[in-house]
Amino acid sequence: MNFLKKLKQKNKPLTSESVGFSYTNQEILKDVTLNLKEGELVSIIGKSGCGKSTFLKIVSGIISKKHSGKIKIFGHNKIFSKAKLGFVPQELAFIPDLSIEDNIKIFGLNLGLSEEQSLTKARELMTLLKLQEDIHKKPNQLSGGQKVRVNIMLSFLHNPQILILDEPFVGLDFLNRRLLWHFLETMKKKKKSIILTSHLLTETQEHVDRLIILKDGKVFFRGNLESLKSKLKTHYILELRFSYLSKENHTKITKYCNYHDINIMDAYEKYLMLGINKETQKNMIIRMFDKLDLKYKEISYREPNLDEVFLSA
Description:
Radius of gyration: 24 Å
CATH superfamily of the largest domain: P-loop containing nucleotide triphosphate hydrolases
Shape: elongated
Distance between the termini: 37 Å
Strand order of the largest sheet: 6-7-8-3-9-10
Order of helices and strands: HEEEHEEEHHHEHEHEEHEHEEHEH
Number of strands: 14
CATH architecture of the largest domain: 3-Layer(aba) Sandwich
Number of domains: 2
CATH class of the largest domain: Alpha Beta
């Protein structure tokens, strides 16, 4: 049985079992288990401070302090498999006062590559990233989006099988985000396995194969958007604006929703956003409003996007 388990792990780019991590007295991660498949794009999402970036840094070896649990790269200890990993940090890691070419050579040298190997791979990656810039330029002469793409190119010079990106879309405009998504889709076709974090939830849902939600350092959910809707009982969004909503009536609505499994996702003065599992629940809550003689306008009734479902997580 142990032999079969080891054989299965060798076919999986990344496996983590019961990973935990603490800073002094603060527990950051608790029992995080993840399996990353070949050619799979997975996004880890969660509120700030939930442990997303910490987990990626542990997997990639950036955080070297002791953690609990096991991490295997193609069935082997990650210490002996660093060449198979490429990590892009949130911060720009290149040397701004040196040319792009010199950065390529230095990063390549740190990754065990010759100058020729580094420059050859850099040209290939720059083409895929639509980074048509003179490599004699310094990175600080580039736009913000170009700097991010240079950061990515330098991190993947050694042609790793597993690509790890920590918040790669931060500060990017729509065009640069599209370029990066196209690049990641190309990497998937090359059988690369990708794991990233992002706060752009609605955009992320269109591209990833699987979502992992961390909550309070634990895995709260793993799967796709439809599965998440079912877990959180939020298949529809009902948005309403009332002419007037007293505290008394707001309390009555809250009690009614809690009793009938209707989720109040957002509430502000006269505005309500309700998460509804079944269409019959909409009719129920409308009848309740009529019974209270409330005047309201229905803003929308529709399926939710990931940002909205995430409000319930």
